[in-house]
Design brief:
209 residues, mainly alpha, Muramoyl-pentapeptide Carboxypeptidase, domain 1, 0% strand, transmembrane helix, Peptidoglycan-binding protein, PGBD-like_sf
Length: 209
């Protein structure tokens, strides 16, 4: 019967050694396959999956390029009498042109004046004044005459438009302001502000008789 260990004294037991476990590797089968392929590399005729293909000869791979035709020299026409005649004709035309130009410069002043008289006269440009957009009988600031006097007399008949205004026949700033006031009060929009045009004339004459 075993006795109990004494206190303070280590218990003596056999030491357990580790057990080594060997497992087959998956790479062993792959290495075996490579070994078989290396051994059978010289004998490829009996190996399934490959077939021998004959390589083409060097003559079959070489193609002959087409031949380039030789470049023929360009034939120039011989220098005969025909070419000389063309050059002489061109020189004669050039000399005639220079002679005519020199004669034109040497003409006297009288001949030049007579040549200028034969040219047709150009009609002068039209200097007619542009049509007035407010009408042909339009009066504006700066105008004078009996028509301005008639305008002043008619405006004096309209209450508070041209009260005690002058009737001297001059279209001044005071008269222009009176015309503008009349246009504003009675809603006349066909003429410029302060300009006595056709629309303002018809309205003023209808109100003053």
């Amino acid at each position: 019967m075993p006795t109990a260990d004494e206190p303070g004294k280590p218990h003596e037991r056999p030491v357990l050694e580790p057990v080594r476990v060997l497992r087959p590797r998956n790479t062993d089968a792959l290495a075996e396959l490579f070994r078989e392929l290396t051994e059978n590399a010289e004998d490829t005729e009996g190996y399934e999956g490959y077939e021998s293909v004959p390589l083409p000869s060097a003559e079959a791979r070489t193609q002959e390029l087409p031949r380039v035709p030789p470049v023929l020299p360009v034939k120039r026409p011989p220098r005969g009498p025909g070419r000389r005649r063309g050059a002489v004709a061109a020189g004669a035309v050039l000399a005639a042109a220079l002679l005519g130009f020199g004669c034109a410069l040497l003409l006297p002043d009288g001949d030049r004046a007579s040549a200028a008289r034969t040219l047709p006269a150009v009609p002068p440009a039209s200097t007619a004044p542009p049509a007035d957009p407010d009408g042909s009988g339009t009066l504006r600031e700066g105008a004078t005459g009996p028509e301005v006097t008639d305008l002043q007399q008619r405006l004096r008949r309209i209450p508070d438009v041209y009260a005690d205004g002058a009737t001297d026949g001059r279209y001044d700033t005071v008269l222009a302001e009176a015309v503008a006031r009349f246009q504003l009060w009675y809603g006349i929009r066909g003429d410029e502000t302060g300009v006595y045009g056709d629309d303002t004339r018809r309205d003023l004459e209808s109100r003053t008789g």
